[in-house]
Amino acid sequence: MKNILIIGATGSIGQATRQRFLATTTDHLTLFARHTDALKIDPQRERIISGDAGDPRQLAAALEGQDVVFAALSGDLPKFARALIQAMTPTSVQRLIFISSMGIYNEIPASVGASGNLAHNPMLRPYRQAADLIEASSLAYTIIRPGWFDNGSAAYQITQKGEPFGGHDVARAAIATVVVAAADQDLYLRESIGLNRPE
Q: Which of 45, 38, 41, 49 is closest to 24 using CA atoms?
């Protein structure tokens, strides 16, 4: 049993991953989000913290007693990455799983849709900046670069940094499966992995 801090717990990936943890593990969850009013929790296994993921002091308080941090955020990703690194580095909580995006390394082949690469899509620049910051840190990170989220088949394929991306879409359920495995089995340490549904 581990203590897992889910940052961005109210988003679609945060919610899917939360449900996967509850259904398949005995882990205890701390749900961290800016707006938590709508969350209904299992008080035996979950607690809520309302906070700002860009504030290192609030993150540091939330880290107490945690084993793994899972961050599925939208917005100013470089700011969030810096705050996480600042909060986590001096603590014993070193395990970070961070959701980025496909295309940040220009790894999408033309057959999949090369326009999804950073070279063609400036909206991916903050995702790349956040990944670069985390990779340069001392944390035991896993960066997950999923395709576009949907609720289709949960089959998935993993690619490594430097390998071409395998497909365009991936199910939220597949992302949740990989996150839970990475958290509970310490998989993909200091790796940046692509995640897609096989074509």
A: 45
